[in-house]
Amino acid sequence: MAGTTTAWSNWAGNQHSVATAILRPGTVDDLTQAVRDAAAAGERIRPVGSGHSFTAVARPDGRLLDLTALETDVRVDLAERLVTVPAGMTLRTLNALLAAHGLAMPNLGDIDAQTIAGAISTGTHGTGAAYGCLSTFVEALTLVTGTGEVLRCSADEHPDVFAAARVGLGALGVLVEVTLRCVDAFVLRAHERPAPLSAVLADLPGLVDRHDHVEFYWFPYTDRVQVKANDRVPADDRPLPRWRGWLDDEFLSNTVFAGACRLGRAVPALAPAISAVSARALTERTYTGRSHTVFCTPRRVRFVEMEYGIPRAALPEALSALRRIVDRLPFKVLFPVEVRFTAADDIWLSHGYGRDSAYIAVHQYVGMPYEPYFRAFEEVTTALGGRPHWGKMHWRDAASLATAYPRFADFQALRNRLDPHRLLTNPHLTHILG
């Protein structure tokens, strides 16, 4: 079960740790024993997933738990469209599994490298006014608590744990398997087009309501955005030519963009011109494809990110403030700003708890200064009732977050019950949960 390498870092390279041991349990019994052994030794134990969180939420502070070898039965109920999978499976593997059975996730984000456990534990989401975060598709889950107990949870079984653990930050237990409510495989028609930001904001409610999934990217120092609208269609009759997919998604969005970011980091004064060129490099295109191939795109340019969910009506005010922040920063911003939309849900620590949300994600290229930028925007979004994405950078603490989540105290009480000795914690969780 124990590995030989103890160094760990996340995808972005901004979080590092040296674990006291790396544990790779192969069965649920192995996992419960690993939890009990850590408790007996007085050490903490932490699952790390794929390392796609920018915060220290997964950073091990003791024993590192790698769940990639944990075997649980994959069960597919085609009649009910329910699929039960190991929590350590990646979304990319899940998407391939579902496609082989004629099924799909109802919605996805734009990255598929995360583990299922990591994605749902941090509230990972896509975009679409009728869709909550990925955790809303969870029908049941099994976790090993901080006391070594194995709990099977659903709306009917341990419903309080189910309401909390679907976005549980890994603070309530180690997720073992997850049952997902899926849909029949479907095709999306993607329409991507440049537009003026002012025109998009003027038509925002209509834009969001007209499409199954819509998002846009604002290019700093310009009034330009790239709008992406995805809608369900009956046939995959307009596939993207392979050369166009390579040109837009690999060459322009990754290879050329990486070079532009390196240039902007070396010569910051060029950043506004680079942003203007980037805004015009991505032209209009329409194509169809299987849902997961349209939702998910390759991201090879490294960055750090902060994302806030705010009440949807507050979006224009937040973007206006963001533009002023960008213009007065003592350094330049090299990455576009992403805006997405989700529906309300009832998961205790979901960013969408009780309200329809707009999400604004701010990024900065690795090696560039970001903290004054992110902190200034956090101040704006906090005043608007914003909730930080659990997997993305923020500086909120437990006292501040308690005012943003109506069920925060209930989550803390449940944590006290399921992990009374804080076996599963780390300094970051102590900061945000108390």
> How would you characterize the largest beta sheet?
8 strands, antiparallel
Binned, the helix content reads 25-40%
> Which structural class matches the secondary elements?
alpha+beta
Strand content: 15-25%
Q: Segments where pLDDT lies below 50 for 5+ residues? A: none
Mean pLDDT: 94
- Ends: how far apart? 31 Å
Number of helices: 14
Q: How many whole angstroms does the radius of gyration measure?
A: 21 Å
User: Using DSSP, what is the number of strands?
Assistant: 20
Lateral strand order in the biggest sheet: 16-13-15-14-18-19-17-20
Q: Based on Cα principal axes, name the global outline.
A: globular
Which keywords apply here?
434 residues, alpha+beta, 5-stranded antiparallel β-sheet, 32% helix
Describe the structure.
With 434 residues, this protein is of the alpha+beta class. The chain is 32% helix and 25% strand. It contains 14 helices and 20 strands. It has helices at 28-41, 91-100, 116-121, 159-165, 197-202, 204-210, 242-266, 271-281, 291-295, 315-328, 371-383, 398-402, 408-418, 427-433; strands spanning 7-9, 16-18, 21-23, 45-47, 63-65, 75-77, 82-86, 103-104, 138-145, 150-154, 173-181, 183-184, 187-196, 213-218, 224-233, 285-290, 303-311, 337-342, 357-365, 387-388. The strands form 5 sheets. An 8-stranded antiparallel beta sheet has the order 16-13-15-14-18-19-17-20, with helices on both faces. A hairpin with a 5-residue loop joins strand 14 (213-218) and strand 15 (224-233). Helix 10 (315-328) runs antiparallel to helix 11 (371-383). The longest helix is centred in the middle third of the chain and has 25 residues, at 242-266. The mean pLDDT is 94.
